[in-house]
Structures are given as structure tokens and as C-alpha cells.
Hints:
This protein has 429 residues and is an alpha+beta fold. The protein contains 13 helices and 18 strands. The strands form 4 sheets. It has an 8-stranded mixed sheet, sandwiched between helices. Strands 1-2-3-5-4 form a 5-stranded mixed beta barrel. The chain has a 3-stranded antiparallel sheet with strand order 7-9-8, with no helix packed on it. The radius of gyration is 26 Å and the shape is elongated. The structure holds 4-amino-1,4-dioxobutan-2-aminium adenosine-5'-monophosphate and magnesium ion.
Amino acid sequence: xxxxxxxxxxxxxxxxxxxxGWLYNQRSSGKVxxxxxxxxxxxxxxxxxKEEAPGLFDLAGEITQESSLKLTGTVREEPRAPMGVELxxxxxxxxSRAEPYPITLKDHGVDFLADRRHLWIRSPRxxxxxxxxxxxxxxxxxxxxxxxxVLADAPIITPNACEGTSTLFEINYxxxxxxxxxxxxxxxxxxxxxxxxxxxxxxxxxxxxxxTRRHLMEFWxxxxxxxxxxxxxxxxxxxxxxxxxxxxxxxxxxxxxxxLKRDISKLEAVSxxxxxxxxxxxxxxxxxxxxxxxxxxxxxxxxETVISESYSSPVFVHRFPAKIKAxxxxxxxxxxxxxxxxxxxxPEGYGEIIGGSQRISDLSLLERKIKEHNLPVDQFQWYLDxxxxxxxxxxxxxxxxxxxxxxxxxxxxxxxxxxxPRTLYRMHP
Length: 429
Ligand code: 4AD
Ligand code: MG
């Protein structure tokens, strides 16, 4: 018997096939029993009648939620079914009968579900989000590969603070001090001088003290870096990437987006080029909207939400004051108080999804900035070498996967956009 994935059943109408999965739910109307099976690719309703197969009918009634089983049956077109097909069951093989399952089909509180994240991910909604995440990650790679970027993995254990010293996770590395990486950028800058255009994609760590719907302690970041790329090229690369991600999900995940009750028209409204707003213009916009804000302050989540409300595409806010940004950002030659960098703010209040900039390529300026930021210059000598040996203008960015997925899926909190979230008060399971 041919084993078929549920998502592919439609092309097997009329055939007898086998499906393998877990019982999501069942209901019965006396003489007809409906088993809803899930296999990770979708859900399908499987039908048994007492009249046609009394033995199977009784056996099916004893199968508990989340038991694993193989079903054989004939695929029938059923326009009213979500998958467009259902299965007329001819055989059941129970593989493992599940104990009473803690997550029922009624609503549970978030803490209850988070404690059982290893089971919660089986729910159709969570599985849909994780499928979309997988596609987003793949689409990131495909996009950069198609633009001649080389994947060069950055280390997780590092002696350097890339994004300030206040969010470092410190570890003991054989009696010397090391940190979990906040960003692979510094290493990207080195590999870019070796390979031209590079990216890394891995987990990054921030000991964030904030308990918000946008912050995780461990999150995945796609980071690209390219030699000879200037500020403007960098922005274009980012908007093309993000547009590509949205289009790819729209193409491949209509069913998942519908299951998530995502307002698809909001994603369809995303168009190129993305609007660009200087930090100074953004400050005026905030104040015009009655949202009082001082030039020189950093945006908080509510400020980003107000800015995003004016646009249906993600918006770049560029040329932030150097004082509130990382040490490595190139000052704008026209006004060295601001930097040649931008944050990309997602629509609908999802906040910053990308941070990027042109990097300082001048040795003495970079050395001075490292000191001004109270970072240990000796630990950065290897990084300064990149400016000693054939320094070139170069730029790059980092895109947070969880925030991007949360936005595309239209979900409330980033914790649902990663299989096992690490949040301020939770690292279990
Ligand atoms: O703006 P950030 O801090 O930029 C960097 O780390 C640069 N070194 C990247 C680079 O240029 N190579 O972080 C980049 C993105 C943010 O825009 C956000 O999407 C995400 O990473 N991010 C977080 N996502 C979830 N939880 C957190 N605590 C995050 N902190 C940053
Ligand atoms: Mg940032």
C-alpha cells in the first residue's frame, strides 16, 4: 500500500492509500464515525460506517486523542472538507495508544500551554506557524544564495560584545571569560573580506531584562555582510529580501495563513520600494501624531507602532543619532552626529525586524569608537586588523527570524514563532 502525506492526498482521489499519523479528534453520529488524523502536513477526515465495517467501527471508537496509527482507505473528493478530500477507511493499525492527553480541544491558558510546549506544537495552529518559519528560513537562504552570498557560519562562543554589554550571557570558558554571541556580525565582516559577500544564520543570545511580546533570550538571526556594499545598496538588498519572504509565504502557505486567520490582504499590500524616513522625520511624525518624543531618545515599542501605522509596507528609519547606536556604524559624512544605518520597522506594530548599517572602515575612527563605548580594545585587535589589511567600505544587516515570522503569521507574541522559546522567566521545556 502506498504511504501518502495528507497534504498530497488530493492528487490520489479514487486510489487506495495508507496514511500515518496521530488522532487529532473524533466524533460519531451513531452509525458513522469520523476520525480526524494529522500527520504534520495537514488534517484529514477519515470516515467509517458501522454497516460496512462493524469491527473497525468499534476499534476506532476506542482510539484516544494523540494515539499514533496507520489508516488505509480510499481517497474521495469532498468539496466541503478543508483538504478537498476525505478517506473512506478500510483498515486501521493502532501503533501506540495515547494516555489521556492534557491538551484538549477547548481553550487553555498560555502558561498551561507553555509548560507543555513539547505537546502544544502538535496543535494545527502551532504546526502551521512552524511550517511557515521553515519556509521563511529556506527563502532567506535561497535569496542570498541567488545573489552570490556565501554561507559562512559564525561562532556562538565569543570574547566580544557586538551589541553593547548590558545584554551579555557570560560563560566560563576554561577559566577565561566568554559570551554567547549577540550577533555574528563581527565575524561576518572578517569572512566578507575573504569571500566578498557572506551571510551567517544561527541562534543569537541576549539577556534582555524586558518581558515584551517581541523579546526572546535566544533568537535566530539571518545576518548578511558584503564588501564594497554601501548604505544605499544595503537598504535595497534588505527590501528585496523581505519582499521575497512575503511573496514566498503567500505563494506556498495560503492554507496555513487561513488557518491562522491572518488578514492576507495586509500581506498582499506589501510593495516595493519600502518607504524611507529619517530618524529626524520620524521624530516629527511622532510629535505631529500627538505622541511626544525627544530627538536623541531611542524608540520604544509604542513609538515603533505609531510609526508603522502610517504605512502598509515595512518602513526604514535611517540616520539615527550615533549616540544611541552600536560602535561600528559609519557616521554620515554630511552630518557625523547621525549614522549611515537603518532599522526596518514591520507594519501592524510588529516592531523592528532588521537592524543594519554601513560599517566604519577607518582604523583610527573605529579604535576611538571602541574606546568611547568602553569596550576592551585588546579583545578587538583581530577586528581592527580588518581595517589594517585592505579595509574597504562595507555594509550588512541582521534580520530577526521570530519577529519576521510573527508579523507574517499575524500572531500576538514571538514565543509562538520558535519551536522552544526562551523568555525572561522560562527556559523549560
Ligand atoms: O538590531 P540588532 O541588535 O542588530 C544586530 O545585532 C546587528 N549586529 C546585525 C547586523 O548588522 N549583522 O538585531 C537585529 C534584529 C532586530 O532587528 C530584531 O529583529 C532581532 O534581531 N532581535 C530580536 N529578536 C527577538 N528577541 C530579541 N531579544 C531580539 N533582539 C534583536
Ligand atoms: Mg536594532
